[in-house]
Structures are given as structure tokens and as C-alpha cells.
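Dear H.,

Thanks for agreeing to be a second pair of eyes. The structure we're designing against is below in C-alpha cell form, covering all 219 positions.
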């Protein structure tokens, strides 16, 4: 009886490359062949083989062409190279977004912070960087990028900026900081009182309106 090969493609020749003779058929002997072929076929979604993996391949004395001896192995070096290339491309896109976002941030600091000396929250600066990166197509900003923010700012501006919990330019004196701090405290105190009074007034007006509505319903 003529031997048949499960692993011969219908559309390709069974002749060995650069040879005038057909490929030698190799018998499946390894006991693990059934499981290995079944797993490889499932991963590859190979419709040519899916129909026969339910059979006991070794017991059926199945044969395969030698060119298919690597069928059950994992990804080829070419496939791995393609994945690596994709990862490298994603990394390049991310680094480009980081570079462009820092350029925008540094421009903002030069124009806004030095132009009109004031204090900025470091969290606001971080949010500005993250928003800029997302505008360049980055969905998830790495924690390391946020962590190195202070280092990048110090490297760019040196001693012209002071970073603690706040960020402010060197041209802003201690006296100005104290005055601004006191002014902000007064504003906060005033606003807190104003908000409470405003809420009380609104509540009283709403209560009177509800009473009038109920009185009309009763009458």
C-alpha cells in the first residue's frame, strides 16, 4: 500500500528542494507525537490538520515529509523577529512622544513661569506632561516617565528652578513667596466663608419656595 502523508500541502510539490526525487516519508514513532501535533495544530488553527488530530496518529502509522519535522516547534526566528520589530516600533513611538512632550513642557515653563513668576504645583506639571503625551498617541504613560520628571526639569533649567512640593522660578524671592502665601490664605478664608453663606442663602430661598408651593396645593 502506498504511504500517505498528513503533512503534505496539496498546493505544493512533494519533491525535496533542488532535488529530482520526492521527499522521504518519515513514520511517526514518538509516543508524544499525538499531543504535540494536536497542540501545535490548535495554536496554528491549521484547518488541514485539525480534521485528523482526533485520531491516534502513532497507532495509525502516520507519516510526514521531512520538511515538516519542525511543525510542532514554537515561533520561527522570523516570527520572533517580526514581534521584536513591532516592540521596537512601539518603543520608538513612545520615546518620540516623551521628547515632544518635554519640549512643549519646557516651552511652557519658559514662557509662562519665567515670564510671570509664580508657583506651580508639581502635580499640575505632571498632568500637563501626561496630557501632552496622550495628544501624541500614548494611551498609557509609564510610571518611570512621571518619576523622572523632576530630574528632567532640573537637568534642563539647573538652579533657575526650585522644586520641592511646588515649583517656582529663581527670580521669585522669599519675600514675594511669603506675601503670596499670606494672600492666598486670606483668599481661601474669604471664599470658605462666602461659600457657606451662599449655601445658606440658597437653602433658605429653596425652603421658602417649597413652603409656598405646599400652601398653594393645600388651598
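And this is the sequence the design step returned. I haven't edited it by hand at all.
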Amino acid at each position: 500500500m502506498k504511504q500517505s502523508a498528513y503533512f503534505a500541502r496539496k498546493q505544493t510539490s512533494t519533491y525535496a528542494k533542488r532535488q529530482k526525487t520526492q521527499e522521504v516519508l518519515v513514520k511517526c514513532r514518538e509516543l508524544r507525537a499525538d499531543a504535540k501535533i494536536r497542540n501545535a495544530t490548535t495554536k496554528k488553527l491549521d484547518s488541514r490538520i485539525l480534521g485528523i488530530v482526533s485520531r491516534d496518529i502513532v497507532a495509525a502509522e502516520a507519516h510526514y515529509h521531512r520538511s515538516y519535522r519542525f511543525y510542532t516547534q514554537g515561533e520561527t526566528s522570523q516570527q520572533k523577529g517580526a514581534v521584536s520589530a513591532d516592540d521596537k516600533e512601539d518603543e520608538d513611538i513612545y520615546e518620540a512622544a516623551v521628547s515632544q512632550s518635554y519640549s512643549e513642557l519646557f516651552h511652557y515653563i519658559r514662557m509662562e513661569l519665567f515670564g510671570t513668576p509664580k508657583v506651580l504645583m508639581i502635580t499640575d506639571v505632571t498632568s500637563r506632561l501626561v496630557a501632552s503625551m496622550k495628544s501624541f498617541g500614548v494611551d498609557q504613560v509609564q510610571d518611570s516617565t512621571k518619576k523622572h520628571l523632576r530630574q528632567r526639569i532640573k537637568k534642563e533649567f539647573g538652579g533657575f528652578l526650585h522644586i520641592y512640593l511646588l515649583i517656582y522660578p529663581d527670580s521669585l524671592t522669599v519675600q514675594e513667596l511669603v506675601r503670596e502665601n499670606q494672600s492666598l490664605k486670606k483668599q481661601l478664608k474669604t471664599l470658605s466663608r462666602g461659600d457657606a453663606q451662599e449655601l445658606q442663602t440658597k437653602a433658605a430661598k429653596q425652603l421658602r419656595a417649597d413652603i409656598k408651593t405646599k400652601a398653594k396645593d393645600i388651598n
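Two observations from my side: Residues 1-12 have pLDDT under 50 and may be disordered. The longest helix spans residues 174-218.

Warmly,
E.
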